[in-house]
Design goal:
single chain, 2 domains, mainly alpha, about 350 residues, 17 helices
Length: about 350
């Protein structure tokens, strides 16, 4: 066929949904390993619970919708949703709260809209926000980092807290996160420099949590090298968070934490590489990805500093998801030969 009749590059690059999802799972392993080192086996239990619940609910929804079971169960999307959800909640979270969040993620945020490829909101973030709003007290109980206090959570403590096996004193093995501590202490008119002298802070953010972020960053960079994700979203989100936090930190370092605190604390790195880059709910145009990621960075920082929640990543992602159709509309690349508005 003459070249003048060939319009688009239709050659298949051999990528598939299942291939991408399994690469994402592998890329989460460095962060999971560091998480396990600092906080113990609770994260493994939560991952197993979340993934199991996600697969069972995915199966039931596919049956109800008369969809091919093997095709969709093997694509790995439910597994990724379960893993990402597990990383956002405390390892001490009771099993029924984990089930509630996964049920909202799979049933409401995913299948009610038509399943994979049709959901406008990130399922894992939707499930997390649902349980955060419904069970705020339980969601604020986090384990103390290994070595930070005398009584750190053991595997039996995690099993007891998750499955309610006997009387477990969670106060004895729990501790505040760096983000929660920073927000509450600033509300008491303490200065950042004073707050960060506490035992829960490491070099830049919370003890252990900063290294967990480094683990997720290594996995995210691997996804970039493999071509699973595009560079625009991680670069724009992290750059925006860094730039805004630097401006306020320079303006008044006594009440605004450093850029590295915001980058390495909470779920910033996990979001930048694994959540905001969700190909279904993120912007699909090159310019749109930059706008979308900048919006997440701005919203997340604003909620952290001036909002009611210590970490606004999930809310920022969902708000940005809602803006994606508008962003894509105004950033759609022109088509060769197209005329008019």
């Amino acid at each position: 066929m003459p070249d003048r009749f060939i319009s688009s590059p239709h050659e298949h690059d051999s990528s598939s949904v299942s291939g991408m999802m399994w690469r994402v799972c592998l890329a989460l392993l460095p962060g999971l390993s560091v998480y396990l080192w600092f906080f113990g086996g609770g994260i493994i239990i939560q991952c197993l619970l979340a993934v199991s619940f996600a697969l069972v609910l995915e199966y039931l929804m596919l049956k109800l919708r008369h969809q091919p079971l093997a095709l969709f169960l093997k694509d790995g999307s439910a597994i990724v949703t379960g893993l990402l959800f597990a990383f956002t909640i405390s390892p001490l979270t009771p099993w029924w709260i984990t089930l509630s969040g996964i049920a909202f993620a799979i049933i409401i945020a995913k299948h009610i809209y038509g399943g994979l490829g049709y959901n406008p909101f990130n399922p894992a973030m939707a499930g997390y926000v649902f349980i955060l709003l419904c069970f705020p007290a339980q969601m604020n109980i986090w384990p103390a980092t290994a070595g930070m206090v005398e009584n750190t959570a053991s595997l039996s403590d995690y099993l007891g807290a998750i499955f309610r096996l006997g009387q477990i004193d969670t106060d004895a093995v729990s501790g505040a996160t760096a983000l929660n501590q920073m927000k509450s202490q600033l509300g008491l008119m303490n200065m950042v420099s004073e707050i960060q002298h506490g035992p829960i802070y490491g070099h830049f953010a919370g003890v252990g949590r900063e290294w967990i972020s480094v683990g997720f960053m290594l996995g995210g960079l691997a996804l970039l090298v493999m071509g699973v994700i595009k560079w625009q979203i991680p670069a724009a989100m992290l750059g925006t968070m860094f730039f805004i936090s630097m401006i306020f930190n320079v303006y008044d370092g006594d009440i605004y934490a450093s850029p590295l605190f915001h980058l390495l604390g909470g779920g910033t790195i996990l979001c930048a590489f694994f959540i905001a880059t969700d190909p279904v709910t993120a912007s699909t145009t090159p310019a749109g990805r930059l706008i979308y990621a900048c919006l997440i960075g701005i919203l997340a920082y604003g909620i952290r500093v001036w909002g009611a929640y210590a970490d606004g990543i999930a809310f920022a992602v969902l708000i940005a998801n809602a803006c994606v159709p508008l962003i894509d509309y105004y950033t759609r690349p022109g088509v060769i030969g197209e005329t008019g508005p």
